[in-house]
Specification:
By secondary structure, the protein is mainly alpha-helical. The chain folds into 2 domains: about 100 residues, no CATH class; about 140 residues, Outer Surface Protein A, domain 3 (Alpha-Beta Complex). The protein has 13 helices and 5 strands. The strands form 2 sheets. It has a 3-stranded antiparallel beta sheet with strand order 2-3-4. The chain has a two-stranded antiparallel ribbon with strand order 1-5. The radius of gyration is 23 Å and the shape is elongated.
């Protein structure tokens, strides 16, 4: 049950973001309230511009500020660490009328979010690829590769979101024409620096399976269902080279190999 103080706080926040002013007329009419409202909204919009630099480069500062002001009123910050603000901005952009001509914008924003998540993830030790080389074929099939929390990936089937994101993140010019096809991205952190590279749908499926703690044999099967000619050894070597994994777990039971 809401206490009188909690009810007042909820009403204050609603009035602050212009969602509902019922019972708050006397407060809103105070000169200082408008100053406070403007300060809070500016802090929210500034945080969004800082958190989504690729979107700002694509659409321009004024466009993003206007969109951010609308978004901030609908979804004010719930965490004092504004570095994490904007978790549902991609969904907002997907539905935003003024972004209708830029259907890729939400997915580009998702990649900016992944960058922040990788940047902020805790440090974890690297593992040596020789951890796999010493395993027997049976142990290898049942082993599990655990992705680091600083490894994030996504597959975008409808447009070249990764290319658009990468070129703008790297402050490079967009080509006159893009190969309009689905793309995937893998973001990792190596020696304290966020790195990114293109990945296939099969690569993402393999990583999804590893994140779900499936044994290597089943993870490989799922990836091969997506791409029958996938070079699994090359994929694993590439993922190890970017420090995508934190552990190789060889502890398993018979149930681990039962398809689900």
């Amino acid at each position: 049950m809401n206490t009188p103080l909690a009810s007042f706080q909820d009403a204050f926040v609603d009035a602050l973001y212009e969602r509902n002013s019922t019972g708050m007329t006397a407060l809103i009419e105070q000169p200082g309230f408008l100053v406070y409202r403007n300060t809070v909204l500016k802090g929210s919009t500034d945080a969004l511009l800082a958190n989504f630099p690729t979107i700002e480069r694509l659409v321009g500062t004024d466009w993003l500020k206007a969109a951010a002001a609308i978004y901030a009123r609908q979804s004010p910050p719930t965490d004092s660490r504004l570095l994490h603000y904007g978790a549902d901005l991609p969904d907002f952009l997907d539905a935003f009328e003024h972004a209708r001509e830029m259907s890729y914008l939400g997915d580009v924003a998702r990649l900016d979010l992944l960058w922040t998540q990788v940047h902020c993830a805790k440090d974890e030790p690297d593992i040596n690829p020789s951890a796999l080389a010493s395993l027997s074929q049976k142990e290898l099939a049942r082993s599990r590769l655990t992705p680091k929390v600083a490894s994030r990936w996504a597959w975008f089937p409808d447009h070249p979101a990764y290319t658009i994101w990468r070129l703008n993140r790297e402050q490079r010019d967009m080509p006159d024409e893009l190969d309009w096809r689905g793309e995937g991205a893998l973001l990792t952190r190596k020696q304290g620096r966020v790195c990114w590279e293109a990945v296939s749908a099969a690569d993402c499926t393999f990583l999804d399976a590893c994140a779900a703690h499936l044994p290597l044999e089943l993870a490989a099967e799922k990836a091969l269902e997506v791409q029958s000619d996938l070079d699994l050894a090359e994929l694993i070597a590439r993922l190890f080279s970017v420090d995508a994994f934190v552990a190789v777990n060889t502890h398993s039971s018979a149930e681990d190999l039962t398809p689900t």
